[in-house]
Amino acid sequence: MNAYLVSCLLAATLAASACADPFLGGDARPADSRVESSLPPDLRFQGDLHQYKCADVIDLLFVLDVSSSMTFVLDTLEKEIALVVAASNKLAPNTHLGLIGFVDNHRLDTTGPLEGGKVHTDAASLQAAFRAFKQTYTLPNRNPGDGPSGPTLQNPICEENAVDSLHGAALDFPWRQFSNRVIILVTDDTFLERPDNYGDRDGDGKTDKTDYPREGDYPARFTLAEAVAALKQAKVRVFSFTRLKPPGLLDLTRCGTGRRLPWSAISDGWSTPYQGQKPIPEQSSGKNFDLDQVYAGKLSLTATINDVVLESHCAPID
Ligand SMILES: [Ca+2]
Ligand SMILES: [Ca+2]
Ligand SMILES: [Ca+2]
Fold first, then answer.
1. Number of Cβ atoms within 10 Å of the Cβ of 100
2. Cα–Cα dist 274/230, whole Å
3. Which ligand neighbours the alpha carbon of 209 most closely?
4. What pLDDT score does 54 carry?
């Protein structure tokens, strides 16, 4: 039992004033809430006080770098996502899942059965979505925000647009009111901020070079601070899987085009500060994990996801 549940139980024994929902605002109470809607938020526990059971549901959004080096992650998730869905539904029924894919811009998947397609409820439709992103965006090197008929071979610099993806995740995913809100982000690079442009390979302020790797207009729309503010407002935790150090020269997953930031900055914003700002997982009450350990088979992506969902469930963000 985590510290929050213990303190909640103790306080609730003294006076039924504990366990107030940490997530203020947001959508209306879900129709499938496991608690009678007539109950005020401070009585949202089930059973007697000796068997406290948090009634929060789980909203789990994958925000995935789908650039060409990330095929491994999409394949792993496709294979193992059923384990995540099963574990989450065991913890709390009716888990909602979603997917954002990003390279230099992003797209929220809309092939699920709920909320205009933004929400998946089982492994099968999410597996199909992982496959579709791989085929449509990863393999031809296409930016998800450009849609399935966008230009291919379109990724001139190594940094990928996690910041705008997280800002979009905070605002555009239909987070439920009484929910444990978790983002699982996987990327193997750092990011840029407004007013930089991911398509401006040489940083001259123009996006007009047509030789490989071709330039394009992919402006960074938000800053790190703006994305973190949106995540905090939405009470969403970010758990990321990223590189802690640059890949070796012969590493097949090493980005082959140029960079805006030095190779040593590859961990910035995830496990090391970004331009003096604390890493995103730390700022959003989440945590970062070593993606190289996943590649090496030393860290299970799905078991780690299950762990963080369990640990964050019914543990309000401070
Ligand atoms: Ca990449
Ligand atoms: Ca890029
Ligand atoms: Ca340029």
1. 26
2. 17
3. 3
4. 78
| 263: helix, strand or coil | helix
Dist. CA 190 → ligand 1 center (Å): 9
| Rounded CA separation 254/66 (Å) | 14
Helix 71-91 vs helix 123-133: crossing angle, to nearest 10: 160
- Residue percentage of the chain with pLDDT more than 90: 81
Closest CA to 80 of 304, 309, 236: 304
Q: Point out the ligand nearest to the CA of residue 188.
A: 1
Measured in Å, residue 202 CA sits from the centre of ligand 3 at 5
Its pTM stands at 0.86
Domains and CATH numbers, the chain: 3-51 (no CATH), 57-312 (3.40.50.410)
Ligand of minimum distance to the alpha carbon of 105: 2
Helix (H) or strand (E) holding 96: strand 96-102
Distance 83 CA to ligand 1 centre (A): 27
CA of 211 to the centre of ligand 3 (A): 11
